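DEPOSITED CHAIN:
***
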Amino acid sequence: MKYRRLGRTGLAVSVVGVGTWQLSGEWGQTFTQQEVDQLFGRARELGVNLIDSAECYGDHLAEALIGAAIRHRRDDWVIATKFGHQFHPEALGRDRWSPVTVRSDHWTPQEVIGQLEASLRALGTDHVDLYQAHSAPAAVIDHDDLWEALHRQVARGTVRHLGLSVSGGDLDQARRAGQLGAGVVQVG
């Protein structure tokens, strides 16, 4: 396996990671813990160490499956998870590419820290390596309160690095990443 430095974080990650949206149940398949354990076991055997998830992947379901699968080898993994979208139960019966309305109250500092705490519980860990704003509306990126709250989490050690997960070629957010203290820009 080849490894690269992840953005400006200094984290060495495998060039292939495990994306976990499919674990949410939104893709028409439900995964057992045994299947997920086998998936992560094989990924680790191949040298994969990067996990990409989000709180909205099945209302922390993907994170819970991940946490159980890696609980005995947490330090072998770089966990990247996202915040801001929240799970929408109506997503289970729809075309996965259809837009889901993103509510502005999911982006308040209190709500985002609540999402982080729920992610940490689901993952069974005391920290995430990368915590990313998930396709945040432009107005959210301008909220200093949110970024101050996130930087407090970095200082506490519950988050090692901050990032932005941008969609639709949002170049403005990508350009502002450094100003926000985001060391990674994920393009989706």
Summary: Residues 109-123 form the longest helix (15 residues).
